[in-house]
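queue> pop job 88
queue> type: inverse folding (structure -> sequence)
queue> payload:
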């Protein structure tokens, strides 16, 4: 059973996973459900057999699950890393279901102090799973608090201050931490090393994405032709969450045209044209980035900060959300001097570099 509502209610400050975009902190205990989260929940595979792709990872997971069940021992602590939307949360929630154990869900940024983590630890039953999403955002004090919990299943609590301070060792039930992170490089080495198993999730190929799209279309009671599934897959950047989001939009678009029971390639293409997603899956923001790199910086090199200021987007967002796909496409290069456009990007956008004439007026 998911227990996050029990725990999140105890936090001093209720701003949870969707930090930043919640106007009113007097919310009920459950986190607010934004459309993307709702979509994730509807589409999320429930069992390991429903998970498509990531074959090698799944094979290894089956082995450790089987061994844990046979020995009647908790699973070793497990860390999933990889880019957003590839199935870290999905796998983290499927595993406890396969084991038939309880799961509590926490998130790095909401665990602001050791006391926030304490209730999760004391609530963790034998063999249960504590899933910590965005584990790279655990503050150092909480991180140190979790070390003995992961290693020896105990916590050290200090009561009082100064001369009167006493430390109490509290024994915990053996349990499993499943961590998920999009930035494993930001994890400290001691935390990383406490995970017995580490699995990296990679992008999906077209067959796998088409399969996910076809299955999810059925869940949405929409009918896609095989070409339509494939077209959506091509534009999904190897990412199931992107595929789901496109599918949701296409379903609405088709509904609007009264053709949700037969979503043809033509409907998919016109829906995605309207959404400004091009044939490679680049969106408006990607094209703005590339166009600025060409027109403002004459193809680069341009520093991340400078790009951020030009586009009015935070450098973190550029680095985490925009650049990875452009790098994968081979559309930009990250050099020591900054970002540079590539010939492939110029060809794709049908752009040419502005002349190097200093008299030339800038286009922006
Ligand atoms: N292997 C898969 N098979 C089928 N569907 C998948 C798979 N992986 C992910 N999905 C779909 O993609 C959605 C997003 O996946 P998930 O939430 O697990 O990603 P994530 O890696 O946790 O992303 P984030 O880093 O943003 O938290 C899920 O709701 C699910 O519908
Ligand atoms: Mg997740």
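queue> result:
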């Amino acid at each position: 059973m998911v227990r996050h509502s029990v725990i999140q209610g105890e936090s001093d400050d209720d701003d949870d996973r969707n930090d930043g975009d919640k106007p009113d902190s007097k919310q009920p205990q459950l986190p607010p459900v934004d459309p993307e989260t709702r979509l994730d929940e509807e589409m999320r595979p429930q069992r390991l057999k429903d998970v498509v792709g990531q074959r090698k990872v799944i094979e290894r997971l089956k082995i450790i699950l089987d061994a844990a069940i046979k020995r009647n021992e908790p699973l070793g602590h497990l860390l999933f890393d990889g880019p957003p939307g590839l199935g870290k949360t999905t796998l983290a929630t499927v595993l406890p279901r396969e084991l038939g154990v309880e799961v509590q869900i926490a998130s790095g940024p909401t665990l602001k102090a050791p006391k926030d983590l304490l209730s999760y630890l004391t609530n963790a039953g034998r063999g249960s799973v504590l899933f910590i999403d965005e584990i790279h955002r655990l503050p150092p004090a909480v991180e140190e608090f979790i070390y003995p919990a992961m290693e020896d299943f105990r916590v050290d609590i200090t009561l009082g201050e100064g001369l009167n301070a006493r430390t109490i060792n509290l024994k915990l039930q053996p349990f499993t931490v499943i961590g998920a992170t999009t930035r494993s490089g930001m994890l400290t080495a001691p935390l990383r090393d406490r995970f017995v198993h580490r699995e990296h999730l990679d992008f999906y190929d077209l067959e796998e994405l088409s399969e996910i799209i076809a299955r999810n279309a059925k869940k949405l009671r929409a009918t896609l032709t095989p070409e339509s599934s494939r077209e959506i897959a091509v534009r999904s950047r190897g990412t199931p969450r992107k595929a789901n989001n496109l599918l949701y939009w296409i379903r609405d678009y088709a509904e609007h045209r009264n053709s949700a029971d037969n979503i043809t390639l033509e409907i998919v293409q016109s829906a995605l044209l309207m959404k400004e997603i091009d044939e490679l899956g680049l969106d408006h923001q990607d094209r703005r980035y590339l166009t600025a790199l060409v027109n403002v910086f004459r193809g680069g090199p341009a520093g991340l900060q400078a790009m951020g200021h030009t586009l009015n987007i935070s450098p973190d967002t550029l680095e985490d959300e925009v650049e990875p796909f452009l790098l994968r496409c081979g559309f930009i290069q990250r050099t020591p001097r900054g970002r540079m456009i590539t010939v492939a990007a110029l060809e794709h956008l049908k752009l040419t570099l502005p002349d190097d004439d200093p008299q030339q007026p800038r286009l922006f």
